[in-house]
Amino acid sequence: MRKLLVAGVVVLAAATGCGSGGSGDGAPKIPRTATGTLEQLAHRAGCDPDVQTDAEELRQANCGSGRARYVLATFATDRGQAEWLDAADDYGGTYLIGRKWIAVGTDQVVTRLRGRLGGTVERSSSHHSGSSGGGGHEEGSGHTGHH
User: What's the pLDDT tens digit per position in 48-74?
Assistant: First the structure.
């Protein structure tokens, strides 16, 4: 089931032009990384969440519309989050990562969300994504990985 959910997020990321956005001129001030339930995080992000998965280990919702669309997922455990991200990395994409939550969207959407939720941006590349850039962590993010 987890692979199916990850594949759905990847399809969404590809459909919204994942990897095609830029960072813009004025980078937002990064707040302390948010914590909370899916609904609390969505509220802070300015989203009325459309919950797609409501399981004990994973809650996942669609937010926004059009090119501003993104997925917000919360996890019951750090291990569940790490496993989900490891599976998603196979597809490439841009992720905003907090403790027990991940948002997936275009670079531009993730940058905007980071200004509201804090967190760390991770970009991964894959042979599936069609991206010509290399993967990795945002410079200066202090992200040490989840493996």
Answer: 999 999 999 999 999 999 999 999 999
- Dihedrals φ, ψ of 114, to 5°? -60, -30
Radius of gyration, CA atoms only, the chain? 14
Task: With CA atoms as reference, report the closest residue to 64 among 108, 2, 123, 30.
Answer: 108
Residue ranges of E strands in 42-145: 50-54, 58-63, 70-75, 93-98, 101-104, 120-124, 136-137
Residue where the block lists tokens 């990847």:
10
Find, among 102, 42, 109, the residue nearest to 73 by Cα: 102
Residue 113: CB atoms within 10 A of its CB come to 27
Six-digit token pair at 85? 């991200």
Give the global pTM.
0.69
CA neighbor of 110 nearest in space, from 8, 30, 52, 43? 30
Which 3 state secondary structure label does DSSP give 62?
Answer: strand
